[in-house]
Amino acid sequence: GKVLVSGANGYIAMWTVKILLERGYRVRGTVRSADKGKFMSDYFAKLGYAEAFEFAIVEDIVKEGAFDEVVKDVDAIEHMASPFHFNVSDPQEFFKPAIQGTVGILKSAVKNATRVKRIVITSSCASVLTPGLSVPKVFSENDWNEASPKEVEELGSKSPGASIYRASKTLAEKAAWEFYNQHKSQVQWDLAVINPPFVFGPAIHDVTSLKSLNTSLQSWYDVVVSDSPKTKEVLGQTIPWVDVRDTALAHVLAIEKEAAGGERIITTSGSTIWQEWLDAANSLNPNPLPSHKLAIGLPEISQGEKVYLISYDKSKEERLLGIKFNTIVETTKATLEDFARRGW
Ligand code: NDP
C-alpha cells in the first residue's frame, strides 16, 4: 500500500516514514519546500528506498484544497504537520495551520481519496492533560484539555506560548473528531488519533545545528546535556515521555490494526522526573558523549518514592497496539550516541 505522510521532514515523521518503508509501504511525504524534500529523498535513497519514497510540496496547509491532489492514490494518511514551539504570541499563527490543516486534509480525503481506509492524526497529550495541577492525576483518553483553549480565549495574544500550543492541539483534535462524525456515513475510511507526551530519542531529520533541534529534543538537551542550572524545581518536574521510534511505530500500527479505528490512543512509556534522565545518563559507562561531563544533578530526589503530577493510563495502548517501549536508559544511550555522531 501507499501512505501519505504530511509534515514528513519532522522529527517524529521521519521515523514514521522510515518504519513504513521498512515494512514495505510506499510513502509520499509532504514538505513545505523542495530542499526539505531533497533531504528526505537523499536520506531514504541511501537506505535503498529511492523507488518507494517520493515527496510532494504543499507550501501552505492552510490553503483551501491544499491536500486535494496528494490524497488521490493513497491507502492511508498520517497527518503530522503542525507547529510545535513556544515562541508564539498570536494564537492564530498556530490555530490556523493546526485546525485548518487537519480539517483540510480530511476535506481533501472526502473529496478525492478513493482508496483511503484509515487516517491517523498526530494529536498530543497536550489535548488530554489539565496543566498546572498541584495534586497527582492519572489521565486517560476520556480526558480533554478544556483549560488551555479557555485560557487562550481569555488572554489572546498575552497567552503563554505553551498554552497556545496546547490549545492548538486540543482544538485541532476536537475539530478532527467533529468533522469525522459529521462525514462518516459518506466515507470509506475511519479515523485514529495518536496522543504522545514528550517525545525524546535520536533524530534522523535534518538537524543542522543545536539551535534547530525540534522542541522536545531541545528540552532534553537543555536539561541532560547543556550546562544550564539544575535546580530542584527543574529536576523534580514531571515528564511523561515516549521514545520517538516507539511514537513512529504507534503511527504505523494505527493504520494496520483494525481495532484502532475510531480511537484516540495515548502512547507513553510512562512518567519520569528530569532527575531520572540524569541518573540514566550517568549510569552509562563509558559516557556515550565524551565531549561533555554530564551533570549529576540531585540524585537524592529520584531515590525512594517519586511524585508524578501527571501520569497516563496505558491500558488502551496495551490492548490496541501493544508496543514494547524503550526504557529511559535505552533512549538516553541512543540519544547521546546520536549527539556524539554529530560532534556536539
Ligand atoms: P517538528 O517540529 O520536528 O515537525 C513539525 C512538522 O510540522 C514539520 O514537518 C514542519 O514543517 C511542520 N509544520 C510546522 N508548522 C507548520 C505550518 N505552519 N504549516 C505547515 N507545516 C508545518 O516536530 P515533531 O516531529 O515533534 O512534531 C510532529 C507532530 O507531533 C506535531 O503535530 C506535534 O504537535 C506532535 N507532537 C509532538 C510531540 C513532541 O514531544 N515532539 C509530543 C506530542 C505531539 P517545517 O519543517 O517546514 O517547519
TrEMBL record:
Residue intervals of the NAD-dependent epimerase/dehydratase domain: 3-262
GO MF term set: methyltransferase activity; nucleic acid binding; oxidoreductase activity, acting on the CH-OH group of donors, NAD or NADP as acceptor
Pfam families in the cross-refs: Epimerase (PF01370)
Transmembrane segments: none
Keyword terms, alphabetized: Oxidoreductase
Swiss-Prot/TrEMBL GO biological process terms: methylation
PROSITE patterns named among the record's database cross-references: N6_MTASE
Family of this protein: Belongs to the NAD(P)-dependent epimerase/dehydratase family. Dihydroflavonol-4-reductase subfamily.
Protein name from the UniProt record: NAD-dependent epimerase/dehydratase domain-containing protein
Native species: Cyclocybe aegerita
